[in-house]
Specification:
EC 2.3.-.-, GNAT_dom, GNAT family N-acetyltransferase, Acyl_CoA_acyltransferase, Aminopeptidase, alpha+beta
Amino acid sequence: MEIKVGIVNPDEKKQLWQISQQTMTIEVDPHPYRPDEYDRFLQKIQQGKAIMMIENLTVLGALIYYPVTTPEYTFWEFELFVRPEEQGKGIAKKLLKQLLCCAEEQHIAFIQLHVLGTNPRAIRLYEYMGFKRMEEKNGTLFLANQWVDDFTYQLRLLRGKREADS
């Protein structure tokens, strides 16, 4: 397995689309891409940067991150998805570690994400990696016939280093 950071080639784009369709369902994402939104998906990839785990030309998982700039600082948000058959093998953790390396090099203020309460595996991973819950919206989304909690997590970085490392 190798980690690739950078430009996504046409075959990888197709694979990323397939993985997103398999994993980013209404149960874990309030705004999953519909089958007719391939062009919107490609635009989002082009706006961000990709970190992918690849083995034998097959994308096993990917993390797409996007800069968000305010007058005070720049931070990143991201989407993370791993092929269902590859989940639980440490791929997401490796992708997140690579993201943290990139963020530290570029002196990013913090990394932020949104995750639903219906995705406890992802929540455990983010908390293990040092992300802190910053906001909790209880039962604000009605998805798949149930009220769902929406959480905002952040990992603050100080001068290119994680707070936990300082």
